[in-house]
């Protein structure tokens, strides 16, 4: 230790090389002057000094368009609809390198339908990538509202988990499409279990809005709006709110779907008794805090819920028996409106 201290007095520390981050960074970064473009001749100047100068190999920036991966990406990013569609047509299924570029094309109306079809056929291979795009709120809204219909083509638990996460999105149409897609997945996988806790958490967020917001929810994709959902047909689609339909869709993920559909239809009849039975059933299945928030949002909120509730089994039995009457009443309403669809 004493010897080291004595020797240190004779060392010029200012002459030592810089071993900080700047030295490490410089050793890995090639200066712009060292980059050689394709076809350019590199001129190396001799450096003065006893040591022989070492020439660094030039960086080749040429793109190999013969590479099928590069060709796929170039076609998908060309901005030429015909070229894009040709590239999509040869992808069956879509390779992993193409998925991020296909997802971006989902927002382009001129090509999105063939692109969506291609992604649906490849959904099981790239489910993780698609879920990542869905739940990333920095991704374009148009993409996020269309991706649930891609994930709805999957039968995997991972896709279902991603769609459940989408139920918490800030945009209504993303939540709506995630709920609809989950019912499609569940119809093909009856044993699929969706978390009841997370569904009711989502329901609480849905009903904690003003009536104006509740009634303002619309679907921007008209074609998808025309497809209908598990609760509506052509007639009811023009008479109900998307918000109420979404609430019933989410409930069908964790509760028996048939009574819910009957109750949903009953709420849209002009018969006070049938509507009252539907409301009574809703009262029997909803947690009190959700019911209290939902009731003022219903279109005909003048009818109060039952004060002395009957057993759920008794209400359910009455609801199921009223199904035929509800269908007859709706058919009469449909005829009066001139809608025979």
Write up this protein.
This protein has 341 residues and is mainly alpha-helical. The protein contains 20 helices and no strands. It has helices at residues 2-8, 21-28, 68-76, 81-89, 99-105, 112-121, 127-135, 141-151, 157-166, 172-188, 196-207, 211-216, 222-226, 234-237, 242-251, 257-267, 272-285, 288-294, 312-321, 323-337.
Quantity of strands, as a count: 0
Which structural category do the helix and sheet elements fall into? Answer: mainly alpha
- Sequence stretches where pLDDT stays below 50 over 5 or more residues: 16-38
Largest sheet: none
The geometry reads as globular
Approximately how much beta-strand content do the residues carry?
under 5%
Helix content bin = 55-70%
Mean pLDDT: 81
Q: Counting H and I runs of at least 4 residues, what is the number of helices?
A: 20
H and E string: HHHHHHHHHHHHHHHHHHHH
Structural Rg: 31 Å
End-to-end separation in angstroms reads 97 Å
Overview features:
mainly alpha; 341 residues; 20 helices
Summed up:
This protein has 20 helices and no strands. The chain is mostly helical and 341 residues long.
Write the layout of secondary structure elements.
Layout: H1 2-8, H2 21-28, H3 68-76, H4 81-89, H5 99-105, H6 112-121, H7 127-135, H8 141-151, H9 157-166, H10 172-188, H11 196-207, H12 211-216, H13 222-226, H14 234-237, H15 242-251, H16 257-267, H17 272-285, H18 288-294, H19 312-321, H20 323-337
Helix pairs in contact: 5-6, 6-8, 7-8, 7-9, 8-10, 9-10, 10-15, 11-15, 11-18, 16-17, 17-19
């Amino acid at each position: 230790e004493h010897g080291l201290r004595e020797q240190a007095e004779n060392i010029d520390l200012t002459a030592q090389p810089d071993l900080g981050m700047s030295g490490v960074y410089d050793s890995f970064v090639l200066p712009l002057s060292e980059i050689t473009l394709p076809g350019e001749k590199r001129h190396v100047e001799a450096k003065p000094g006893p040591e022989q100068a070492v020439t660094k190999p030039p960086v080749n920036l040429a793109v190999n368009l013969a590479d099928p991966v590069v060709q796929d990406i170039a076609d998908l990013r060309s901005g030429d609809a015909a070229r894009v569609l040709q590239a999509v047509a040869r992808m069956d299924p879509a390779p992993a390198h193409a998925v991020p570029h296909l997802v971006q094309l989902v927002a382009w109306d001129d090509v999105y339908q063939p692109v969506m079809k291609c992604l649906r056929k490849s959904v099981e291979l790239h489910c993780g990538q698609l879920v990542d795009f869905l739940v990333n709120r920095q991704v374009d809204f148009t993409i996020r509202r269309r991706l649930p219909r891609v994930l709805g083509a999957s039968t995997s638990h991972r896709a279902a988990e991603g769609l459940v996460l989408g139920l918490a999105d800030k945009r209504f149409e993303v939540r709506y499409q995630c709920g609809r897609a989950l019912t499609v997945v569940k119809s093909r996988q009856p044993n699929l279990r969706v978390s009841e806790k997370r569904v009711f958490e989502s329901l609480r967020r849905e009903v904690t809005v003003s009536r104006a917001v509740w009634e303002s929810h619309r679907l921007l994709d008209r074609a998808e709006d025309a497809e209908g959902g598990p609760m509506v047909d052509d007639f009811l689609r023009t008479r109900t709110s998307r918000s109420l339909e979404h609430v019933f869709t989410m409930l069908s993920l964790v509760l028996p779907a048939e009574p819910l559909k009957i109750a949903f239809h009953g709420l849209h009849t002009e018969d006070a008794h049938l509507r009252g039975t539907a409301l009574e059933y809703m009262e029997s299945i909803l947690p009190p805090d959700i019911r209290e928030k939902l009731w003022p949002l219903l279109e005909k909120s003048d009818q109060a819920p039952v004060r002395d509730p009957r057993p759920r089994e008794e209400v359910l039995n009455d609801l199921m028996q009223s199904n035929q009457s509800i269908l007859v009443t709706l058919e009469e309403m449909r005829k009066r409106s001139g809608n025979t669809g």
